[in-house]
Amino acid sequence: MHTSSRLLAFGLLAFVAFAAAGCGGTARLPLEAGVGPHPQLPAPEKSLIPVLHIAPAKGWPPGGKPVAGAGVAVDVTLFATGLDHPRWLYVLPNGDVLVAETNAPPKPEDGKGLRGWVQKKMMIRAGSITPSANRISLLRDGQRFVFADKLNSPYGMTLVGDQLYVADSDAVVRFRYVAGATHVEGPPTKVVDLPAGPINHHWTKNVIASEDGARLYATVGSNSNVGENGLAAEAGRAAVWEIDPASGQHRIYASGLRNPNGLAWVPATGKLWAVVNERDEIGSDLVPDYMTSLVDGGFYGFPFSYYGSHVDARVREPRPDMVAKALVPDYALGAHTASLGLVYCGGQPGRASGPFSEGMFVGQHGSWNRKPRSGYRVVFVPFQRGQPAGDPIEVLTGFISDKGEAWGRPVGVALDKQGALLVADDVGNSVWRVTPVQ
């Protein structure tokens, strides 16, 4: 047998082995054990082959849509469909909705070798490897307009005055925004480069403005699962940046955050919150994703430890001094839920009372590294006086078919001008609108 044939045969055998791994490594704890301010953190599981439990991307059958969680009374309607991998949402002051139609940029150095080849095959099954539309669309009264295109895997968006800031996969850029316009004129202006490069493992970048618009805050995910590409590859990453939009000068606001995505201000405390994806491949019960208020200058463990001082023995360059200063997150969201979307609700129109009067909506995209599956839903975490105060309420579910296929996967969440919840669905290529039943 030729060498290339042997390698192909070995690769196919490895692919089968990885796929079969989904039959083992079942969680020993219920998902709820990894939720709340004090999650259970069992000993990590060591395994040559990680748990793989993919939900193959299928898309919704005719008439299909998400359903309300048990005991929750909400109406779910289709706000927009026919989109190309919608990931993130932003509501403009006049009620227009911007949606980032986006996917990963080229990453030629990410996932190399046999392991990377197998992982890419799995991501194809999950619908996560398709060319990026590199577009922001504007939704208004059932119509769709190309608002901005020829971007580089755009994700987060925020408006300050007449400047719309967009977080591409490699930079924060800005456009001049004219109220009511259905598209921007001219190319964007670069504000600041963000870490990218030929690996760019966690490529999604989000951006939010301070209340006075004087500062921007941008998320930059890690360049690895747990530092396996070397600490030099993590420079400026696994962090939230604070940026001066006028000059582009920046500093690290909070670090040690493996893959921060959603950002939200809580007015009662003035604190910035982030939702963070934690590390994989140490068992179905570890590590819980989380949301947390960010301390200026705070360090949250990555890659050396998780949930404070829980050391990750896989890190090749241990730093006990960094472990000693690692902060404990505020609220766990369950292991491998892939929590991405985050929006704070408090005092908005239509939300003055009832179970959604104050708290965070969280879009949980669903992961490949837990059996049984977790995520694939939208939850609401109630708050009181600016702090989490209770168990999550499952708002939307039904994204997985009886055959284990993904009909949809929720990502970004936002509140429209009427206070309804909007949910971006990147497998269903849709945006859903959710309103409470009065």
Describe the fold and architecture.
Helices cover 8% and strands 34% of the residues. The chain has 438 residues and is mainly β. Mean pLDDT is 91; it is low at 1-24. It has 2 domains: 1-26 and 48-52; 57-436, TolB, C-terminal domain (Neuraminidase, 6 Propeller). It has helices at residues 3-20, 113-125, 320-325; strands at residues 35-36, 67-68, 74-80, 86-91, 97-101, 135-140, 143-148, 157-160, 163-167, 171-176, 189-193, 207-209, 216-220, 239-243, 250-255, 259-266, 271-277, 288-293, 305-306, 310-311, 331-335, 339-346, 358-364, 377-384, 387-388, 393-397, 410-415, 421-425, 430-436. It contains 3 helices and 29 strands. The radius of gyration is 21 Å and the shape is globular. 49% of the residues are buried. The strands form 7 sheets. Strands 2, 22, 23, 24, 25 and 26 form a 6-stranded antiparallel sheet that branches. Strands 1-21-18-17-16 form a 5-stranded antiparallel sheet, with no helix packed on it. Strands 3-29-28-27 form a 4-stranded antiparallel sheet, with no helix packed on it.
List keywords for this structure.
438 residues, Neuraminidase, 2 domains, 6-stranded antiparallel β-sheet, 3 helices
Summarize the helices and strands and which ones pair or pack.
Layout lengths: L2 H18 L14 E2 L30 E2 L5 E7 L5 E6 L5 E5 L11 H13 L9 E6 L2 E6 L8 E4 L2 E5 L3 E6 L12 E5 L13 E3 L6 E5 L18 E5 L6 E6 L3 E8 L4 E7 L10 E6 L11 E2 L3 E2 L8 H6 L5 E5 L3 E8 L11 E7 L12 E8 L2 E2 L4 E5 L12 E6 L5 E5 L4 E7 L2
Antiparallel strand pairs: 1-21, 2-26, 3-29, 4-5, 5-6, 6-7, 8-9, 9-10, 10-11, 12-13, 13-14, 14-15, 16-17, 17-18, 18-21, 19-20, 22-23, 23-24, 24-25, 24-26, 27-28, 28-29
